[in-house]
Amino acid sequence: MNKIDIILPVYNAQGVIEECLNSILNQTYKEFNLIIVDDGSTDNSLAICQAFEGEISSLKIISTENNGVSKARNIGIKNSTAEFLCFIDSDDILEPNYVQVLYSYFEIGIDMVIGGYTYFNNEKNKLLVSDFSNISSTCAENVIQNMLVDKTGVKSSLWNKMFRSLIIKRHTLQFNENVSIGEDLIFLGIYLTKVNKLIITNECIYRYRINNEGAMKKIRYQKTFSNQNFDEWEAILFLENYLFERYKNSSIISNSVKTKKIIVANKLLKFSDDIVMNKKLISFIKENIFFICVNRELSIKNKLGILSRIL
After folding, report:
1. Closest residue by Cα to residue 6 from 100, 146, 71
2. What angle do the packed helices 251-271 and 140-149 form, to 10 degrees?
3. Closest CA to 88 of 21, 150, 177
4. Does position 126 have pLDDT exceeding 90, yes or no?
5. Per the confidence metrics, is the pTM higher than 0.85?
6. pLDDT at 131
7. What is the CA radius of gyration of the chain?
8. Which domain holds residue 96?
């Protein structure tokens, strides 16, 4: 019985899903199960996935109505029986050593493994490479801090990580199906509070696509702004309450959460025309002007941009 399940939600990804599936097919370590959850695709995504049934061993395809990525991942968790879990995106590419590297670090007492990654565009240009040098230790507090404030760090994304299924099921962890942006942040933040020990490796295992044709990527902060963008603010508020209960006296956690809130507030204020919400965000920034000015995680450019929102 395979010890690893890879959960892959798919929605209207016909232009990129084959490349993703080929990268799964070409894994050096073959002893894993692939659970594809087609989230009501209206293009040829499901047919492309079905064409791989004879090529990828232990492939399970579940077809559902369109309910969003969180619901799709929860369905994947429900159908998972393996000891370890990975979550990937349908428009990205796994390095051939993805499964092998993550799994090789698991031993007794290890509850999570985090691997390196690169960002690339449709022209296959490398745009960014992960850098974990700012993580002083692998205790949960430091990893949560890095997740919240470091652009090239461990990220709040799921795709470069392997999880222990027992922790997810013991604590009945699920993705919030009412949140469109920030569902990964909530899930990962809570999971990290449950781990005893984790390992971070700089080995590059995952390629994350920028400027994709849609698939399961989060809604971007663009001119097509909608109320769904406020979900990220609600997500960080939810996680803030949870983390403060767990780390009541941790300045590391309180400062990193506040920094993340400032970053999110600034993004929202760039595009939002919601008067009531904007007043709340501006009030929050005004209350933390000194913190913003002395914050080492924010660049001078970012600080000037943030402060310009309240002038």
Report:
1. 100
2. 20
3. 21
4. no
5. yes
6. 87
7. 19
8. 4-209
Q: Which residue has the tokens 């232009």?
A: 15
Neighbour-count burial for 97-123, b at 16+ CB within 10 Å, e otherwise: bbbbbbbebbeeeebbbbbbbbbbeee
Predicted pLDDT at 123: 65
Which residues on adjacent β-strands are paired with residue 231?
none
CA distance 158 to 89: 9
Q: Per-residue pLDDT tens for 21-30?
A: 999 999 999 9
Regarding whether 232 and 170 lie in a shared domain, the answer is no
- Residues 70, 104, single domain; the answer is yes
Residue 217 in domain: no
Do 150 and 107 fall into the same domain?
A: yes
CA distances from 310 to 146, 266, 278 (A): 27, 10, 10
DSSP structure class, residue 172: T
The SS3 call for residue 275 is helix
Whole-number Å distance between alpha carbons of 46 and 36: 9
CB atoms within 10 A of CB 251: 9
Read off φ and ψ for residue 111, nearest 5 degrees.
-115, -10
Split into its structural domains, the chain has a count of: 2
- Given a contact cutoff of 8 angstroms between Cβ atoms, the answer to whether 263 and 277 are in contact is no
Rounded (5°) CA angle 172-173-179: 135
Please tell me the distance from the alpha carbon of residue 69 to that of residue 112, in angstroms, as a whole number.
22
At 165-193, the pLDDT tens digits run 999 999 999 999 988 889 999 999 999 99
Q: What share of the chain is helix, strand, coil (3-state, %, to 5)?
A: 40, 20, 40
Q: What is the pLDDT of residues 270-280, one digit of tens each?
A: 888 889 999 99
Handedness of CA 198, 202, 205, 209 (dihedral sign): positive
Rounded CA gap, 76 and 37, in Å? 7
**Between the CA of residue 230 and those of 181, 227, 277, what are the distances in Å?**
8, 6, 9
